[in-house]
Amino acid sequence: MAVDQLSRAFVALADPTRRDIVARLSVRDATVGELAESYAMSMQAVSKHLKVLEEAGLVSRSRDAQRRPCHLEPQVFDLMTSWIERYRHQAEERFRRLDAVLAAMADEAADDGPADDEPTGDEPAGAGPAHSTETEAGPGHEGEKP
User: Fold this and answer.
1) Block means of pLDDT (10 residues each) for the chain, length 146 residues?
2) CB-CB neighbours of 31 under 10 Å
3) How far apart are CA 66 and CA 75, in angstroms?
4) Which of 16, 53, 115, 119 fits 59 for a cystine, CB–CB 3.0-4.6 Å?
């Protein structure tokens, strides 16, 4: 199965070193040697990272006399951004619908008010018929007549 460009781009950016290289190239173009100075790895290792970024279409190299600067290719970033935005919009719509349902539930609960056996929050704890220590006979001992 062939891997699409979007998948290659996300795979390439899964590595923190490659993400850092992309961040550096977003500021200015650089050669492999210039990029390698920033890392505790060989030029060959940096070159391998650049090759993965190139295969994903995120970076390209050009020739400038003796220099071979690397630079970012914005088209793939545009593709990634549009893919992310589509799903972000869908997620935001689901959250808006959830907010509407929750608001409707809160309005319904406020309209109904508390049930007779539910505390309203106004009474102190232990008050109410279920927690009373008094009996029909009045204060004192249970079952005794005054």
Assistant:
1) 77 96 94 92 94 95 82 90 91 94 90 64 56 50 51
2) 17
3) 27
4) 53
Q: φ and ψ at 59, to 5 degrees?
A: -135, 150
Which pLDDT score is estimated for 67? 80
Cα–Cα distance measured from residue 139 to residue 134, given in angstroms and rounded to the nearest whole number = 5
Residue in the structure block whose two tokens are 């220099």? 67
* The predicted structure's pLDDT at residue 118: 58
Max CA-CA distance within the chain?
112
As a whole number of angstroms, the distance between CA 57 and CA 43 comes to 21
Helical packing angle, 16-27 and 43-55, nearest 10°: 80
Predicted confidence at residue 1, as pLDDT, reads 35
Tokens 């391998």, located at residue = 48
- Contact residues for 68 (Cβ-Cβ < 8 A; gap 6+): 31, 32, 61, 62
